[in-house]
# Entry
Amino acid sequence: MLLLPALPQQLTVRGTNDAAPNRLNNPCCGLGHVAQHSVHSAKLQSKAHSQQPSRPSRSRRLQACVCGVLAATVESRPTILVSEKLGTPGLSLLEAYGNVDQSFDLTPEQLCEKAKTSDALIIRSATQVTRAVFEAANGKLKVVGRAGVGVDNVDLEAATEYGCLVVNAPTANTVAAAEHGIALLAALSRNIAQADASTKNGKWQRGKYVGVALAGKTLAIFGFGKVGAEVARRARGLGLNVIAHDPFASETKAAALHVKLVSFEEALSTAEFFSLHMPLTPGTKGIFGTEAFSKIKKGARIVNVARGGVIDDVALAKALDDKIVAGAALDVFAVEPPPADHPLVGRPDVIVTPHLGASTIEAQEGVAVEIAEAVIDALKGELAATAVNAPMVPPEVLAQLQPFVTLAQGLGRAATQLVGDSGFTDVYISYTTPRSDDLDTRLLRAMVIKGILESITTSTVNLVNADLLAKSRGLRIIESTVPSEGRGVLTSMAVSLGTGSSKFSAALDYRQRVSVAGTVKDNHPYLIRIGIFDVDLALEGTVLLCRQQDRPGIIAAVSSVLASNDINISFMSVARLDSGQDAIMALGLDHYPSDSCIQKIRGVEGIAEFCISTSS
# Structure
C-alpha cells in the first residue's frame, strides 16, 4: 500500500460532488468527534444514575451531578506527554487544553509504557520515537509534535501505519535567523570578531581592522522565503540596496518590500554583500563554487545562515586566498560540528558560529508556542499546516489512482526542471478522463505540487499541506478535465507552468507555457508530450533533451560522445514537426554526464539547445 501524507486510517475519500463533509481536508478528522462523544457518554451515564428509583437527598444529587461533570471533563481532556524541556508559554497552552505529563530522560521501555496512555507526545531532538513506541501505543497516540524543524528522530513510516500525525515547528525561529544573519553581516563588514580577538591578545591595531560601510552598498539575498524576506526588511533599514534571486519567489511580495528580483548571474555580478537563505536541494548543492565566485565583484563578502552544503568550501577557500572574496561569515556547515581540518574554520578572514541562527530565548519560547498550537489543533481535528508525514489512502481509491500518483509527481518535477530564471506563479493541471463528472483530483493535485515544491524547497509536501504550501509560495493552481473514451479513471495528465522562460525553449507550448504531458503504460509513467512535440519516453532516471536541426548525422554524433564517455543509452525518442524543421531528441542515460561530456555535446554541430533532467 502506498503511504501518502498523514490522516487517520478511518478516513474516506469522497467525490468532489458529494454532499458529505470533505473529511480529507481534516488531518485528524474524527479526533474532535471522539472527544465530544466521551463527554456526551459521561453525561448520559450521570443522568441514568440520577433516575434510579431510590433517589438521594438534594445535596447528594448536587454532589453526584458535580462529580459527573468533573468526570466527563477529565475523560474528555487528552493526555499530552512532554518528554523534553519545553518553554513555559507552550506548556501553559497545553495545560489549558489537556492533562500534561512532563517526564524527562525516559528509557525506551518507559517511553513505550507512557505511550500506551498518551494521546500526544511532544519531543525535541533527544527522544527517539521508534516503531516500538507506535506499536506499544497501538493507535492511542494521535499526534507527535517535534519542537523544532528536523524529524529524523521519528519513525515517520511507523507513525503513518498507526494513523499518527507528526507535526513540527518550522517558522518560530524566522526572525532569530534573520537577526543572526544581519549580525554576521555587520560583524563581517567591520571586522568585529578579528578586532576583538586581537585586542584581547594585548594588541591595539586600529589601522589593520578598517572596515567597509553597509549604507549605499548592494546586498544580494539568495532564497527569498520567510528568512530572506526578514533579512531584506532589516537590511533596507541599514541603508542597503537589496536585490534577490529566487526563481520561485512572488514578484508582488518582493515589490512590497522594495526588493528587485534578478537572475543568478545578475545577483553575482552586482552585489558587494551576499546573504544565503536557500534550501539545500540537488539544484542548490555547491551552487556557490568556482564558477559562481569567478563572476562576483572583487572584494565581495558572503554570509551563510542557510545550509552548509550550498557552498563549495574548497572553492570558497581559494576565492579568499585570491582576494576575490574579502571575507565570509558562516553559521552552518555541511558536517556539524566541522572537522578539525576544515579549510575555512581557522582562517582569520572567516567568522564562524556554531549554528546559532535559532538560538534566542524568544525563538525557543516561540517554538514552544508553535508546537503546542500545532498539537492542540491536531487533537481538535483541525488542519495541521506543519504535518510532515503521509496518511494512508483508502485502498479502494488507491487501487484506481496508484499508477497515476508517480506520474503526477514526475510531471510536476519535470516541468519545474525546464523552467528558466523568471519562475512562475500559475500551475495548470489537465486531466483527460472518462469520469470528468466525479473524478476526485485532490491526491493527484497534491502529488503535482509535491513534484514542483520538493524540486525547489526542503518542504515535505503531502495531501494535508499541499494546497497551503502552494498558496504560501504564491502559486495559483488551475485544474481542468477533458472528456475521453474508455473505462479507466484517467487516460492522461498534463502540467503547464505559466512562464515564457524555459531552459529548453522546445518545452514551450502554443500559449508560451512550459508544458509536459504523460500517461501510464503497464503501471509505469511515460512522458508523451514536451511543449508541442509528441514523444514517448519513460519518466524515470536521467534524460538528455536536445533540440536540433532535422538532418542526418546528429543523433550519431551525440551517441558517439556519450559512448566515448562510457554512458549507455537506455532508450531514445525523436520527434519533429515536419521534414527539415526542428526536431527534439530524448535519450535515457544510465548516469549523469560529466562536465566535459556536456561541453562536447554542446559542441556538436546542429544542436540548437539541450538540457538534462532527472527523476530524483
